[in-house]
Amino acid sequence: MRIISDTEVTTHILPRLTLSSLLHSQALAFLSPTSQCPARISLSTPNYTQLFMPARTSTPSSVIKIVSVPSGANAVSGISGVNIVFDDETGKVSWTVGSSCLTALRTAGGSLMSSILVFGGSDKGEVRECVVFGDGMQSVFHVWLHLRYFAGLQRITVVVGSHRTVSPEQVEEKGAQFRSHLEDLCKTSPEATASWTMRCIPAQQQEEVKVALQSSQLIFTCTPSTQPLFPHEYLSDCKQRKHICAVGSYKPSMCELPADLVRSASEIRAGLMVDSIEACASEAGCLTQALGQERLKESCVELSKLLPPVEEEGHESDYLAKLERQASEFGGGGVAEEKGKGGIVSVFKSVGVGLQDVEVTKLVVRLAGDVGTEVAF
């Protein structure tokens, strides 16, 4: 068995990770012809909720994702985790991979797929600005991956304090930490990223939030908010297309997007994309509160229905180009009749699919080479 630590993933694996290989891995997850993803098991401890999530795709080996989510007053902040790979031939554990950044990586990978379907191909140059709500690793990885693909993306606005009040000192500190994390990731990128500027503002400064939203083409929401992060009116009169990747709300009680915006997106052909209709119908408060479960199931389209076919081996380097060709053809049934119109706001809602964890872990293993420590097991 080989063990790869969180630090080794960050310092050795991420620099080897191309966008095409990441998107290929996530396509394998979304398009897997057979899969097993049983309900997660949870254990409650005095300070943590421990989650155990086994899953398997059509590619060899099974993966169990294990995380500890802080829940008590004395818990250490942050979510620690590990992904365990079981070999099909021996039945034994073959790899143990630190997964603290892998959830953010695979979620952002799914979001980038949706963004490419909307703005990829010949429309790539339209993307110049983005707004991200939240300052955690999900937010950082969303911005990082989109910077790598959209070379014209140069202005970033980070909105903090959406679900709690923050002081000016905290805003400054959060902005500095976000910038530092993003700069470190950009240094690891195999692809060169363009120069960018970033500012951090508190959610209470609504006029600045409104201006940032109206001038941005991409919006990322990565918070546990139970109330919409902005009113629909901020975007309803915009003249340019926008795409929202909403990944923060994962419970029926949570909600990041205004109901009118969700309903408007649901009326556009493939304007409301999701990672899993079944999962979103039970977990995505943003959608269920606006649409109800039945209408949600009727009006959403799963991302897998818009992706080009994927081959398991030997074609990792080609998948980004295939996805761009799909975007040029308007997603083969995606936002076809709406593309080219101004004022369209599309949404991709993700609550996270366990199969994504399986394939991103296998990708880390394929890229590992001699990284990690061999342990007799």
TrEMBL record:
Parts forming coiled coils: none
GO annotation, cellular component aspect: cytoplasm
Recorded superkingdom: Eukaryota
Residues making up the signal peptide according to the UniProt record: none
PANTHER family attached to this UniProt entry: KETIMINE REDUCTASE MU-CRYSTALLIN
UniProt similarity note: Belongs to the ornithine cyclodeaminase/mu-crystallin family.
Protein name (database record): Ornithine cyclodeaminase
Taxonomic source organism: Pseudozyma hubeiensis (strain SY62) (Yeast)
Origin organism lineage: Eukaryota, Fungi, Dikarya, Basidiomycota, Ustilaginomycotina
